[in-house]
Amino acid sequence: MADGEVGGFRIAGLTALACRVGGDAGEPHGGGIYAYRDRCPSCLGTLAGAQLRGAVLRCPACGAGFDAVHAGAGVGGDSHLEPIPVLVRDGVLSMAVPQEVA
Q1: What DSSP string runs through 58-95?
Q2: Residue 40 burial (C-beta neighbours within 10 Å; 0-12, 13-18, 19+)
Q3: String of b and e for 52-81 (b: at least 16 CB within 10 Å)?
Q4: Whole-angstrom Cα distance, residue 84 to residue 62?
Q5: Is-contact 78 88, C-beta < 8 A?
């Protein structure tokens, strides 16, 4: 992913949104790649089509803004996105997707 790019992924039954804010994928911990569940806490819609301006990710439906670098904290509000940890294993990026408890 290039700086400022946003992409959606389906991983283990979970739809996720990932974005890069600066950094380099070769850096430890993904170098500026952040991932979140694909759900806006403000309007409960999908984040498909979200735009990233600097570090602020905007919901395409309601326009709510979230700080991608600071755990998806709402900009000007108390809502936040649900983060998914991004890991680097043997130089390959992966997401730590939580599993359902049986």
Answers
A1: E-TTT--EEETTTTTEETTSS-B--EE-EEEETTEEEE
A2: buried
A3: beebebbbebeebbbbbbeebbeeeeeeeb
A4: 22
A5: no
User: How many CA atoms within 13 Å lie on the side-chain side of 5?
Assistant: 9
For 31-64, what is each residue's pLDDT tens digit? Answer: 588 999 999 999 999 999 999 999 999 999 999 9
Alpha-carbon span 79 to 56, nearest angstrom: 14
Whether residue 25 is predicted with pLDDT greater than 80 in this model: the reply is no
Specify the amino acid at residue 88: V
What is the CATH code of the structural domain delimited by 6-95?
2.102.10.10
